[in-house]
Amino acid sequence: MAEGTPGTPEAAADSHARASEVVNVLMVGVGGQGIVLASDLLAEAALIAGLDVKKSEIHGMSQRGGPVFSHVRFGPGRVQSPTIPQGEADVIYALERMELLRWAAWARPGGAACYFAQDMYPAGVSAYPEGLDEEIASRFGPVVRFDPRELRDRVSPKVKNTALLGAMSTLIPLDPGCYVAAMPRLCPPGTADVNAAAFELGRQLAQERLAARDGEPATAG
């Protein structure tokens, strides 16, 4: 993906050319994981790129660990609706593994998944069934998977949502510089730099693994 100076006519033209149609990204997780901030960053990055953006989110029980989801849609023309029709998501970004499966029907055929293999059990559940990662791989096209233990010593748990956003940026047609430009506007004061570093680490890891597995199913993690 070409780098560009965010907000410049060149960067906007580049993002317009690559996002020739509406891009649908569904972002899911549970309360407290940072879905709302990650989706705000994605939407702001698309705005910086000069694209039309619509966003919708539900986080009514987020304070108690309930499900949180956000629809983000953007493109060079007018985006008519803020919600993604079932079966039309280009990418599902998930900070919790079962939430990804719960929303798998929203992916288009061959759509991508980008997720943390992290389990946050609802009340009354102490374990998930075996084979969740295999089930996810069977339902999606490209898959980027991170084990939370893998990033534990490399980024703060508070910015793992941004690290996964960086990984997801390898799967959608949007100038990565636009995400970084969005961070000073939306991240908590004093955290733009650490979020930018986490974004770059996630992006780098996803690129390395997808490249290493070229010729095999595009799964990272």
SSE map:
Layout: H1 9-18, E1 23-30, H2 35-48, E2 52-58, E3 67-75, E4 89-94, H3 97-102, E5 107-116, H4 132-139, E6 143-146, H5 148-151, H6 160-168, H7 176-186, H8 192-212, E7 219-220
Parallel strand pairs: 1-4, 4-5, 5-6, 6-7
Antiparallel strand pairs: 1-3, 2-3
How would you portray this structure in words?
With 221 residues, the protein is an alpha/beta fold. Helices cover 38% and strands 21% of the residues. It has helices spanning 9-18, 35-48, 97-102, 132-139, 148-151, 160-168, 176-186, 192-212, and strands spanning 23-30, 52-58, 67-75, 89-94, 107-116, 143-146, 219-220. A seven-stranded mixed sheet has the order 2-3-1-4-5-6-7, sandwiched between helices. Helix 6 (160-168) packs across helix 8. The longest helix is centred in the last third of the chain and has 21 residues, at 192-212. The protein is globular. Residues 217-221 have low confidence and may be disordered.
Distance between the termini: 20 Å
* Percentage of residues in strands: 15-25%
Most strands sheet: 7 strands, mixed
Task: Please state the overall shape, judged from the principal axes of the Cα atoms.
Answer: globular
Indicate the mean pLDDT.
86
| Strands, count | 7
Give the H and E element order: HEHEEEHEHEHHHHE
The percentage helix is: 25-40%
**What structural class do the secondary elements suggest?**
alpha/beta
Low-confidence stretches: 217-221
Query: Helix count, per DSSP?
Result: 8
Cα gyration radius (Å): 16 Å
Q: What strand line-up does the widest sheet have?
A: 2-3-1-4-5-6-7
